[in-house]
Amino acid sequence: MRIATWNVNSIRARVDRVLAFLERQQVDVLAMQETKCRDDQFPSARFEEAGYQVAHSGFNQWNGVALLSRVGLEDVQVGFDGMPHWGEPAAAEARAISGVCDGVRLWSLYVPNGRTLEDPHLGYKLRWLAALRDTAAGWLAAAPESQVGLLGDWNIAPRDEDVWDMAAFAGKTHVSPAEREAFHALVDAGFTDVVRPHAPGPGVYTYWDYTQLSFPKRRGMRIDFALASPALVTRVQHAVIDREERKGKGASDHAPVLFDIA
DNA sequence: ATGGCTTATCAAATAAGA
Fold first, then answer.
1. C-alpha angle with apex A86: A83 to A88, nearest 5 degrees?
2. Does the CB of A253 sit below 7 A from strand B?
């Protein structure tokens, strides 16, 4: 089974490209982030025609997460227990959706950005990650053999080599100790990055800013990850970051991240 | 060096991304 995660940065602007990607890479399950639309605007029919079941959560033009599966999509859940709220009035955002695909519970996660180190959004980001850790740790405590994948845009560069130049990120989010600790708390809870061993750095990224010719200059960030529970890790055979999808007209600023399980 | 692209939105500036 081939599983992928991709921040598509608007599904309506990218649907043809996503369909071509699914065909080219023969993807069985795709977790998408930043669909940037409401449920009624999501192009479900296009994916159903291609043989995929669809689950989407989107409330407005911000955020939005989805799952596509051609190997079954059962017990869909929107949000996770204890997921923090944001905004005025405070409400749950469309940043988490999951379903069971051929026995594996896969999550599509869009971790809050954080914006700046002084912004309240950073506290929201850290609370969101802490709540995810607590809830996900509970799943493994209750069922240690459960197969769970936490896939998505984490908006964190866990290592210095995960950004093109640490000096350029001095005083910025995504590389702060607090954010990195929040990421490692998930790892410590039993969720392993299944892609890095197959796509080691330095210089290996999943995101490149649209501005300043970042992509051709190879100035990127590794911020999209697929983390797997212990029972799922043992099934992983291969993984790759599809850099080709960042090329050309109409590309998302993120590249898809794929892995195969036996 | 200033957010220098890209997307969405009550459609022209603004918010958000990271």
1. 145
2. yes
Q: Which window residues (71-110, chain A) lie with Cβ within 7 Å of strand B?
A: none
Q: What is the DSSP code string of A146-211? A: --EEEEEE-----SGGGBS-GGGGTT-TTSSHHHHHHHHHHHHTT-EESSTTTS--SS--SEE-SS
A88 band by pLDDT with thresholds 50, 70 and 90 = confident
**A35 CB and strand B closer than 7 A:** no
Chain B: nucleotides below 7 Å from protein CB are 3-9, 16-18
Q: How many domains does chain A have?
A: 1
Rounded Cα gap, residues A78 and A65, in angstroms:
9
Among candidates A38, A89, A20, A100, which has minimal Cα distance to A67? Answer: A100
Q: What pTM value is reported for the model?
A: 0.98
Query: Nearest CA to A114 among A12, A183, A30?
Result: A183
What is the pLDDT at residue A50?
Answer: 98
CATH number of the domain bearing residue A102: 3.60.10.10
Q: Which amino acid is it at A233? A: V
Residues of chain A with pLDDT > 90: what percent? 99
Q: For residue range A14-59, what is the model confidence (pLDDT) as tens digits?
A: 999 999 999 999 999 999 999 999 999 999 999 999 999 999 999 9
What is the span of the domain harbouring residue A54?
Answer: 2-261
